[in-house]
Amino acid sequence: MSQNQGFIPELSAAPFLTQGRTRWITAENPTGEKGQGGKAASNLGIARKGKPCITLPQGETVVLADIHGTGILQHFWITCTNATSKGNFVLRDLVLRIYWDDEASPSVEVPLGDFFCNGFGERCKVNSQPIVVNPTGGMNCYFPMPFRQSAKITIENQHAEDIHGFFYQFHYTLVDLLPENTAYFHAQWRRENITMEGKDYTILDGVKGKGKYVGTYLAWAALERYWWGEGEIKFYMDGDEEWPTLCGTGTEDYFGGAWCFYEKENGIPVEVPYSTPYLGYPFYSKSDTTLKEKFGEDSVPMHGLYRWHLPDPIHFESDLRVTIQQIGHNSRELFERTDDVSSVAYWYQMEPHADFPILLPVHRRWPR
């Protein structure tokens, strides 16, 4: 196998036919039914782009997809506005939930933007293998998500008004059977708007059963001066208590960077965002433009980072807890910090899963 084939296995697998029935769910064909696509009418007539999008009513939950049978959700694409006349932070106000096999509690519960590595209620471009965000706000997910009986995908609008022009496509394949070792996709969001000094931030906890951890997204607002990313990420698994089995060397190291992400411009160190297939630092800003005409653009520094454990998954047999420290450096020594940290954990496990923590109310999710 060539190096390129190993990097993008889909290319080497492309010529080989497999059993499956491909379906797309859109606003125009909300059930993905065979032979029912493209039937809605526009001013150009029937089957001429009649219903490309929907409106999300304020305060309501809309079912985007309700699939019955055995299959794999292979890709989905969503786009919508990130602000309305009633305010900004639409990407934090919309909540994405996914339920497998008629379960009562969701396996995915994440603010829409954060799921796509667009935290802080702001858009940024992401060029990675499982998550891609293109201009302007075209959010794509390629995590494969298998299900044995059903898949239900919902979006809840907790914004202050209706969201018009919500576009989506869900691409899936129905199959006859999945291997016994097929696990279910999960994603969970958490936030501490002020972390506790000397106490590690919890990215994920309470996971029971067998599975593998495949990704981390952090939206980190630095509340203290100087370098913010000396903290180590820790994976406690399979009975670990006081000490973890896996412990990193620093925040920027975990996300594949080094030396504070700095390069010098005119003799001054500046952060350099980047986006690669498996890890990235796609968002950095220290300005807030949401109400600049009234309050200016001053803001705390905001950092968005992702790491996908796809070529290097973290396997666990019975349980998993993931934390990260808030430790800084002032050029002389390390110091304990308190910052504003939000996170998304992505993992696969066998069902059932433990209930997630109660999602913070909408105003507690708004970025600082």
TrEMBL record:
Pfam family name, one: DUF2961
InterPro entries: DUF2961 (IPR021345)
Protein name, per record: DUF2961 domain-containing protein
Species, as recorded: Paenibacillus phytorum
